[in-house]
User: Fold these one by one.
Assistant:
Number 1:
Amino acid sequence: MRPRAPHTAAALLLLGAALVTACAPGETGPVTPAAPAAPAAVTDAARLTYPLDGYKPTDEESRGIERAQALLTADCMQRFGFAYRPPEQPRPAGTGTASRYGLTDAPTASRYGYAPRGGARPPGKAPAQDLGPSGELALGGPPVGGRIPMSLAESERTDSGRRVNGVKVPVGGCGREGFLRMYAPREGAVDALFVFRLEAEAFSRARQDARVAKAVAQWSRCMAEKGYRTDDPVSPQQDLGLSADAAGGPRAVAAAVQDVACKERTRLVGVWYAAEVGFQERAVEQHAETLTRTRSELDARIRLAAARNG
């Protein structure tokens, strides 16, 4: 299996979400624990904002970057004589905070229970274009035996040892080239996942904060009063014995309604949010220089996407 970099902005978002227990990167070591601010009276988490938000693209900007990256990959494939059609990407669900602390919206809970995306089924994958062996080689590159170039500049001076129609195939193929043109055109670019890792670290540390742990315990006791045994406020379905097929059924709806009611009663969301904001603020202070570069590179990426998307 050949190593690959994420090829779309959506992939970056999914990977960032999976890193909720990862350590934050940085030149100055891990984020120092910060005392959480006074808990806010928060119930619905959909519109919460965070200190690191200013270093990330908006949902609309993410869609533009993703589309431009696909077109840059197609530009590369043209060099090899292939009319590559990037697969249609489903409209992303967005990078909002509605499910960051589990269910928090009472109307959604009473209507859909724990069913994902408001009860909608995720769209199926679009069929892949048949490019043939040469086209697949141009798109994905040959098996990688050594270091993968981390910038477009490095990629351009690295020989993969393979050619298609007389043209040198980039290491990682056109998919990798499209990613590097968008995220690392020059050497020394900030890791595309830097902000997501800082977010993941702040989220994980906030979950372990004593005040959050206390609020989670109170929420768990509140749930137990109604017969629901769980200590996981984010994804309690497994504890509650709810399969994916039953996530929107009557039993799930009843549990979901109680889940939200208990969060409101214990002020869990406000306590957790305040703690996470505190850790993010400390991260912004500790990584100010890198985050300034991150914002500058993001602005350049947004401009490139706008120019390529026309």
Note: The beta strands are 163-164, 167-168.
Number 2:
Amino acid sequence: MGPTRFEEYSEKYKDLFLMTRSGGILEVRMHTHGGPLQFDWPVQTAYGHVWSDIGRDPENEVMILTGTGELWQIGNPEVWTTKFMDWPNSRKVEMYHESLRMIENMIYCIGIPTIGVINGTGSHWQLGTLCDITICAEGTAFFDAHYLGGVPPGDGIVLALQKILGIKKAAFYAYTGMNINAETALDLGLVSEVLPHEQLLPRARELAEMIMQAPRSTRHLAHSIVSHPWKEALANNQGFQLTHQLYDMAIDEEGIFERLNRIKERFQRNGR
């Protein structure tokens, strides 16, 4: 399979990912109708494809990933209206593969330096922390509500917490669902910098331009070095964690939707 063309994939994904590129620096902004990205199953599927296409374009040299407005992305409990145990078996298998590709393709397919610009609270924030450098807006809250919603936390958030914070802190935040505010996230090493919202993209572009000063081979091989721990973590643990989550969902008679409704006020407060 040969290189992909920016003109083609930027058009293909424009309803979910708005892309601009200048001097090899690719900016990818997640959105739904010009507002924060609203997560659903087509979005999950698109993630794996967009990472693959971006990674196969040799004109991309640095990627900046961000959201729209003041939220990273919005979770949608409505996707769980049909209990997972009632899904067709073939769709359950597809869900497994799409959930893996959403994260793995970002790490395995993109071979250039990446900057995550987490512009606010939202779901699937692990994608921003998987980037080589991660900056976030003041007021951002990070948390994992899986366990509070009666689901084992296997979608990659706890994996990110384990890798960055360590196993004890990760376990604490997994069980309690407690918020990690931006300042604490900086202290814990979850993010690299905390900035006012209006300074995020200018700072990301400044960092990208700095990265671009090195020779191309240096950029690519440096990314390979700094992202290798994620490759090891994903290879060793992500399939294991995701399988545990999906197995529990497959035998869950009550269903996620009912439990999420009981804690929906927290989701609404935090843009989840």
Note: The chain has one domain: 6-202+211-270.
Number 3:
Amino acid sequence: MKKLQFKKDINASAEKVYNTMLGIDTIDTYQQWTAEFNPTSTYEGNWEKGSKIYFVGTDKDGKKGGMVSEIVDNIPFEFVSIRHNGILDGENEITKGPEIEKWAGSLENYSFHERNGITTITIDCDVADDYLDYFNSTWDKALNKLKEISEK
């Protein structure tokens, strides 16, 4: 597993970027920027510390799948930490097995730093070797989309 980091400066307050990113005011904003990862991307659950949350989408056959995760920490407008514990296969949670063990317990951390009305968002994430190319190319697109909708 490798650690990756991505940063983006956004001309908006940390509160606006945080709310847009997490879909606090409307889940639509979360779905817009995460569509870069999967056009049907959404979440089920909430962002409260200690909560279970599913990051889900559907495949080309309409089957639901995604990540079974936990909100490790959430300090509004400053920091969010997510631990990925397994996958969702339809309605079934899978948290054990060789595929899961490659990345179980991996973290995705979001830091928001505002200065003079510009928020720098930093994403630090653990990525399984199989997904390095995908995340290296897709995160930049997703952050550009987040920037676009946060600056509206």
Note: The chain is about 25% helix and 45% strand.
